[in-house]
Specification:
The structure holds two protein chains of two kinds.
Chain A (H helix, E strand, L loop, with lengths): L1 H17 L5 E12 L15 E13 L2 E10 L12 E13 L2 E8 L1 E2 L7 E2 L1 E2 L4 E2 L2 E11 L2 E12 L2 E15 H4 L6 E13 L12 E13 L2 E10 L17 E12 L2 E11 L42 E13 L11 E11 L6 H4 L15 E13 L4 E13 H4 L9 E16 L2 E14 L11 E10 L3 E9 L11 E11 L2 E10 L2 E5 L2 E5 L2 E11 L1
Antiparallel strand pairs in A: 1-2, 1-30, 2-3, 3-4, 4-5, 5-10, 6-7, 8-9, 10-11, 11-12, 12-13, 13-14, 14-15, 15-16, 16-17, 17-18, 18-19, 19-20, 20-21, 21-22, 22-23, 23-24, 24-25, 25-26, 26-27, 27-30, 28-29
Chain B lengths: L1 H17 L4 E2 L4 E4 L4 E3 L10 E6 L4 H21 L2 E6 L9 H7 L5 E4 L4 H5 L7 E5 L4 E7 L5 H12 L2
Parallel strand pairs in B: 4-5, 5-6
Antiparallel strand pairs in B: 1-8, 2-3, 2-6, 4-7, 7-8
The chains are: A mainly beta, B alpha+beta.
Chain lengths: 549, 164
């Protein structure tokens, strides 16, 4: 680490000289500070430090085809919803890259994704505390027109250190139309990728593969408004957590994803299906947890932005699931009866995710057994059907209305004992109304309600019904003020019929944003993509500053 | 720690010396909706201003901003020749919803996909929406974080100020 830091000092000093002619330095800064006060009613604990803080500063230098950058991160100490291992200060991210005549060379940290991410994705999601940046060497080369190759070798970041596994990867993509100069209206793009993880054999009992390989092939066909994407991925046997377990499993894994989209003016439709079986790739076979996951199987459900719609979010089960999703977008024309003066937008979304017939390969050690490929009648993990109506009524009023019904297998998705909470079925309604008072001044109101049903046989009671109201006053271009209350009025336990009130106040100007808030947060699961984290309940003041230059 | 402070000092000195400098678009590839690779440095609009707006299908204020601009986009184009480029940061979870959403919404913007956030990172965008204004020389002259109703008026004033 010392050598690296010294290198970077020299590097940045030298930029000083270069910078005089045409080099550019830019970056962004983010500060998240939160105080934690005890509140026994919602199980919020006080922090010993009183306040905790996550901050980072990104700096990127560019000059012609060269760029280099670093990120300073500070967790003193990390917010309670982050893993404890984010601790202290450091520069866990630094890179230098240049490109010349179609070849791009990167040394240091980089993020990379092959295909849709089924066998490999290195990315950052600050909100979740995920950052599995690679550290190593990456090359990208545009071989011919329409043919591109990527290859890398490196280790992946976990917190302020690197996981044990060494990853090697190569990915190639060919755009037939570009390469063969086809005049066809249909575009064909093929891609293939291979990943290998090396980790030393360290188990005295089991013969573990030191090199674990994964491969994937993909196809994208596009014609006018039509778009088909399909990808298949395979992982050789990779017995994990063999130290803890007394038996290991030599099952291989596989996954596929397939989507078909059609759209034209005023109308769009997307249908998707995916299946994953024992398809978790870890950067260290002896560790568990989201910090070690190196591939990405996105959740096949709509990412909801409204609080109560996201109260019971779905998480991908890379070990075994089969999901389908359908989306229809339609805009009712302006001037029609239902369209009104500005038209009305509709989005119908349906998704359903269930287990694999026969369980996952990992349970069965698939030497002799493979779960059925397609079976839609298995244990339901999650389903969601929702309709969103977005309408501008006149120059002052616009609204967004959502109605949804979700089924959430709490026992399975949250790892509870079967029968503990069972399956939660909730019906949710959201009305989001904006009213423009005068130029630049807008009042926005949200009312949300969630009515939950739970089987009588469940041994533990879930939280029950919720209602939420929000009022937001904004003055463009600088100010916003929000107050919201979430009320768990339907909780079976009367002492838990609590209000969660939050107040937020913010100032924005150009590239700077300041906001300060106070209130109680409910314990819950917060997800982005297919990855989720448990956010503990909290009570206190928060300060957020973001800025970019 | 000593080393760290030296790095930071060196860095900040640098920032100081060139802070007033103009900013260019980075050398980053994104994808078009029909699957082609596009280098963002090749953006052009016959020397007229370009607005780059980072958005996602799951981001309410982003969609509000782009829908509000869509209603007045024709007037903007007539008066200033401006072009709006909407860059979706939807990852593979929601990427397939981008084209249906855009087409069903009648957006006339140029749309690109930045599905592993490479361009987002290179431009220092920490959250969406985030809007940049590019002048006739391809330099970023103004940027704005977030969107609240009416912000398009301020953006338009900035566009007018740089259009000929």
């Amino acid at each position: 680490m010392k050598n690296i830091s010294l290198g970077f000092i020299l590097f940045f000093l030298s930029i000083n000289i270069f910078a005089q002619n045409n080099g550019e330095i830019h970056g962004d800064f983010d500060l998240n500070m939160q105080s934690y006060i005890e509140d026994a009613t919602i199980n919020a604990v006080a922090a010993d430090e009183v306040i905790r803080n996550n901050s980072f500063l990104n700096i990127i230098f560019t000059k012609n085809n060269f760029s280099a950058g670093l990120r300073y991160e500070s967790y003193l100490n990390a917010l309670l919803d982050y893993d404890d291992d984010f601790k202290g200060n450091g520069i866990p991210y630094r890179f230098a890259t240049y490109s010349i005549e179609g070849l791009e060379v990167t040394a240091g940290n980089f993020y990379e994704q092959f295909g849709s991410g089924l066998i490999f994705r290195s990315y950052e999601e600050k909100g979740l505390g995920i950052d599995n940046a690679m550290d190593g060497i990456r090359l990208k080369y545009k071989l011919l027109k329409g043919i591109s190759l990527k290859t890398f070798i490196g280790k992946s970041r976990t917190y302020f250190t690197y996981a044990n596994g060494i990853f090697r990867g190569i990915d190639g993509e060919i755009d037939l139309n570009e390469t063969l100069k086809l005049q066809s209206k249909t575009r064909y793009i093929f891609g293939g990728s291979f990943i290998s993880r090396y980790q030393q054999r360290n188990n005295p009992v089991f013969e573990l593969p030191q090199n674990v390989g994964l491969y994937a092939g993909r196809l994208n066909i596009i014609n006018g408004g039509w778009n088909y994407y399909g990808e298949y991925a395979y992982k050789i046997n990779d017995p994990v957590n063999s130290i803890q377990e007394d038996a290991v499993n030599y099952a291989s894994g596989n996954a596929f994803t397939s989507s078909l989209t059609f759209s034209k003016r005023g109308f769009g439709i997307t249908g998707e299906i995916h299946r994953a079986d024992n398809m978790l790739l870890l950067s260290d076979r002896d560790r568990i947890g989201k910090a070690y996951i190196m591939n990405y199987i996105p959740t096949l459900s709509k990412p909801h932005a409204y609080t109560l719609l996201a109260l019971y979010p779905c998480a991908t089960q890379a070990m075994g699931e089969l999901g389908v999703q359908l989306d229809i977008f339609y805009k009712i024309k302006k001037g029609s009866l239902l369209g009104g003066k500005y038209g009305t937008k509709l989005n119908l979304n349906f998704s359903r995710i269930n287990g694999l017939k026969g369980g996952t390969s990992i349970l069965n050690d698939n030497v002799n057994f493979t779960p059925e490929i397609l079976s839609f009648n298995e244990e339901l993990y999650y389903s969601d059907i929702n309709l969103e109506v977005n309408k501008k009524v006149n120059k002052r009023i616009r609204y967004n209305f959502v109605i949804a019904n979700q089924t959430y297998n709490k026992d399975f998705l949250e790892g509870k004992t079967p029968g503990e909470y069972g399956v939660i079925n909730s019906t949710i309604g959201v009305l989001d109304l904006s009213y423009k008072i005068k130029k630049g001044h807008t009042l926005r109101m949200e009312v949300q309600t969630l009515i939950a049903k739970q089987l009588e046989t469940a041994s533990k009671k879930e939280e029950g019904d919720w209602v939420m109201a929000l009022a937001e006053y904004t003055i463009s271009p600088n100010w916003f003020f929000t107050i919201q209350d979430m009320y768990n009025y339907g909780n079976d336990d009367e002492s838990k019929r609590l209000h969660y009130i939050n107040i937020n106040f913010g100032f924005l100007k150009g590239a700077n944003r300041f906001s300060i808030g106070y209130g109680k947060k409910r314990e819950g699961i917060f997800c982005v993509g297919g990855v989720c984290k448990l956010v503990p309940s909290s009570n206190g003041l928060n300060l957020n500053i973001t800025s970019s230059f | 720690m000593k080393q760290l402070s030296i790095i930071l000092i060196a860095t900040f000195l640098n920032v100081g010396t060139i802070f007033s400098q103009e900013r260019s678009l980075p050398n980053i590839d994104v994808k078009t909706l029909d699957g082609a690779t596009f280098n963002i440095q090749n953006l052009e609009n016959e020397n007229n201003p370009i607005v780059i707006s980072f958005w996602a299908t799951w981001c309410k204020p982003c969609k509000k901003e782009l829908n509000n601009i869509a209603e007045i986009y024709e007037d903007w184009q007539d008066e200033t020749g401006v072009k709006v480029v909407a860059i979706s940061i939807d990852d593979t979870r929601s990427m397939s919803k981008v084209a249906p959403y855009v087409n069903s919404s009648d957006w006339e913007y140029e749309i690109y996909l930045d599905s592993n956030s490479d361009l987002k990172r290179a431009l220092g965008v920490s959250s969406v929406p985030h809007t940049f204004l590019i002048n006739s020389e391809g330099k970023i002259v103004w940027q704005h974080k977030g969107y609240i109703d009416g912000d398009e008026d301020e953006l338009y004033e900035q566009i007018q100020a740089i259009s000929k």
